[in-house]
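TEACHING EXERCISE
Course module: macromolecular assemblies
Task: Read the component lines below, then compare them to the predicted structure of the full complex.
Student: A.B.
Group: 4
Components provided:
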Amino acid sequence: MFTHLNVVSHYSLRFGIAAPEEIVDFAVQNDMQTVALTDRDGLYGAVRFAQACMDADVNPIIGCNLPLQNSGIEIAAPMVGQASLDLKPARFTAIAFGYGGMVGLNRLVSAHHEVGVDHNVVRRVCEISQETNSGGLSVLLGPNSDLGRAIFEKQFTSAKRILEVWRSTGADIYCEVVSHRSLGETQFAAKMWQFANENHVPAVITNAVRHLRPDQGKTADILDATRKLVPLSKGNVERKNNEAIFKSEIQMQRLACEIAQVAGFGIEDVWKILHTTEDLAQKSIINPREDMGIGEIFVPELDVIKNPNVQEFEGEIWSRPPARRRTKKVIACEAAQADTILRAMCETKLPGNNEVARDRLEEELKTISTLGFASFFLTVAEVVNLARNLDIRVAARGSGAGSYVNHLLGISVLNPLEHGLIMQRFLSPLRSSLPDIDIDVESHRRLEVYDAIFERFGQDRVACVSMMDTYRVRNAIRDVGSALGLPPAEIDTFAKSFPRIRARNARAALEELPELAKSGFGTLAKSGQLNPLLKLIESLDGMPRHVSMHPCGVLLSDSTLLDRTPVQASGQDFPMSQYDKDDVETLGFLKLDVLGIRMQSAMSYAVSEIERVEKQRVELDEIPLDDQKTFELIQSTKTLGVFQIESPGQRELIGKFAPTSFNDIIIDISLFRPGPVKSDMITPFLNARQGWKPAQYLHPNLVEIVKETSGVVVFHEQVIKLISALSGCTWAEADEVRRSFGDNENLPKIRAWLYPKALKLKYDLDVIEEVWAVLKAFASFGFCKAHAGAFALPTYQSAWLKTHHRAAFYAGVLTHDPGMYPKRLIVEDARQMGVQILGLDINLSKRDFVVEESDAGYAVRMALSQIKNISDSEIDSIVCAQPFVDINDMWQRTNVSRPVMQSLVLAGAFDALHQIPSARHQNRSTTTRRDLYVHINELARNHIADRNELLFAPVADTPPLITGLPEMDELERVQAELEILGIDVSHHVIDFYKPLLQALNVVSSSNLLNTRSNQEIFVAGVKVAAQTPPVRSGKRVIFVTLDDSTGPIDAAFFEDTQADYSHTLLNSWTLLMRGVTRRTGPRGISVRGTGCWSLADVQEVFNAGSAKPWGLDKEAGVQAVMDFIENDHAIISNVAISAPQKLWHTSPGIAG
Amino acid sequence: MSKRPEVFQLQVQTKDNIPVKFCWRGQWYSVSTILMYWLEVGSFKNATPWWQSISAVFADQVYNDVDEQDVTWHIWRIEAKSPKGKLVSDIAFRESLFSANAEPWRMIRVFD
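Instructor-supplied answer key:
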């Protein structure tokens, strides 16, 4: 029997290769009952590893390989002529045994990550060994340890001293004998073994497993180069051969014999080292439940929830001594008290004389009490209150909106009783895991909520959740390319040519995606020249690349949190668990997703603008949910900027659906999901809803369940109720059955369970068959109504703001940018909705977009923050010093840099202050933007001269000279706006193509509804979005949205056209498209694209074709364009207005 | 004191895959004692790293997927005698996986 005690997984970032699950698989294949995971620098993979071991019935051992930054031991400098010491820090491996060992290991790893502290690791091990008296740590000192290095240098006196220090820690010390059979390594291993025997240290043999199979060696080299940020070279790769693999028991025994022979030991020494290795393995087996807490639930103590002034540990949280574990008796006692408190809190909010509400509350409280989750609800309610007290908008999302207790506690605004939402989808007595509640807060204030949670519950009960950024195709290409020393520009081009797909799909993408297959890379791939490169790229697929803070996960626990998870500082300096979101749930922590939602920020900002300008306070959570005008706006499909319903697909759906109630919005959101779209639930629903086909109700008993969705099963809640009605089981049981529909293998079992029960309840077999067919088709695809309801609320609220406070709505949307479209489209939408967009003004513009009263009602003023490269302090200095008398005044009273001053001038911020006329009314006797631009250089020179105290420094208050330089024309102004603001404020880009578009009879967005269905037309515009969402056929469709200054135009390019046009479609900004119209409803029309060309190219052809000696010949120009389109030429235009930055939305399926 | 010369090819006579005689600098030595035997896996100094052939693939479209680091050497530390005197050295046998025709024996270390 042999156990590998030193194995790293790919959670040893950019070092290890195998997934923890693969390591366990290898152990099983090699008949090993026990295996260790000893990753470098962290325990990121420990929970997955323990779970995989539990699943495979393998015993897990958990350790960590850590550097000795400062062990407090000095090794004498090598003698002249000897090999120099390795400058990398020495490393040792700590292996936990028992609960105390896991506590110690977690704390040791946390201490290692303590930022800015040069701690003495050995002393820390010593402290931990003393603190954790119920178990402890074993320390393996291998060839890379301080001991190993001393032995390598033949400094045996130092080695003995090092050993004594380690022995004094109280940990169990082992000498780790390793040989990968590289040059001299077996001799070195033999020396280590001899030293151990001479000094009475138990020796163990390991293979320091870095990869499982020999063929993974090259990937290890790539990771070495990537980790060290250097190209591959012999000096930079750590691998000497392919021996650091997961060897079998026999191979390890042979290796032990080989080292023993070199060491001059006999067979009894070989057996001894193998036995010692196995003894340590047996001692170190971890019980995932008892030692790690898998399967238990940990929430903050009731005292902490009740008492807002929790005692916080003072000092470094990583250094806090282990906490006392609460006994089961204490936990039970606290649960009972929490039940009482929860009941009292709910009952104070319960409406009087409402039996339905009381019954529902009783039912939910009973379930909560049975599960012992009252503290969980009290904790979440406390977090929501913390945010509300900070005046931050909060909304619950997810199935939690179905809980009446959540509503009464103020966690969720929606009343589940009013919207037919049920609790069982969220919380069921049949599921013992903690329910999942997500909380939406204003995105720009999310970290304030984090701060409040940490302050309220104490830093030893709260941590952020980490997440692993894994290798996908683009970063795999970048890292492999860099390691191989390929030119950076080529690597960048190759990486960007791929959509955001998995690395393992790179080869398939090169073959299948038309834009890639036709490219030079596709040709190279076909010839096989890219094979070695692609093999390496694919080998990195899914490997963790770096750890970062999860965007929304916060975990709360009792005071044993730091004993059960290692923490490290996140980028924002929050303590962050090394476990990811799934791991922390497995470990029973209360995980709260505090999601920063930009629409919440936008709405909050809009409300504040309404209050500032209109002097009225809008309580968004209290507006009536049946406002007719709001529904009219939604039905009009003019929903750009509105939460959830602004995408082309959603606009098409609401155009057909025409929602008239809040419940309709819930249905709409539920229908527009990948599942319902793929299983075609939309068509039967719309047919019944619009009266084109009668609604199908399968049985009178089932009418009430599916009535609201015209007989179509849309919601999970309907599936639960159908199963319950048919079988007579409870909703909780029905939800368990619903969940099992996800796996096709379960269908026969469910059928065998359901049919007899339905027959017993006197349902006809035909009815049962029909219901079964419906369940089979939709049960796994529906959407949780409570979740959709939680989404529908901000959808309705944002639509309400767009209807009644349009300018404030646009100010909010432009400031916080919550949607998928670029701001320039939102600006265009605002104009079409009658809201004037005012240009940048140095005296009136603020940091954010603000509402101003104008002659035509309320308008929105461009924000200073839109200026490219402007800093926060520059904005602050401008806003604090406003108003300014002239440009000199601003230069003197602010800290704005010259480039930003120039940007302000070019973007027109000084036009009003210096009476610069519009581009159409040029006058050589007035100041121009160019004059101001020149003047800034004078001011800057003056500034330098002033600083150097020159005698004849120019005076700073000289007014700008009128140089006679011509004013910027309209095109130049728009180009400057796009460059500086990213928004074409003064003119729409497409305005400059108007003569061309008129000559070509291009249909505008506003006229699109006047075209017949199935008509071939040309449309043109600026690309604002390109997406490849999942569609029912499973094929790739590129959906493109153009903006032509009269509204959006949505077009779809199917696979038959992608080969010829996808390159232009994905890489050009302004487009001329040919397509066939398709009416999708009274207000809906879309275009099926049949061709597409860069508008700039077309303009070039038109200009060339129409230029005749006798003047312009438009007809000749049009003919030239038609020939160009017919022959499908591509030219490179030099007159195009190019996008200075990416000004369109793309989905992950799009390259670029 | 040991020295590691350039890896010299060596003519060796074996019995049961164990070296019994070898020719070193024109002199035949007979192995009197085998002091140690172990394996070394990897390449010697002159092996071309695998990543260099990846760059070559773009030029000549030929990629040698052989990883030189897979080569195993069986090493004998032996004491040998010749009419001129005694010699302690490490001689190695290369497991000839990829180049069957190459002479597999090398003298890799001589102890003076």
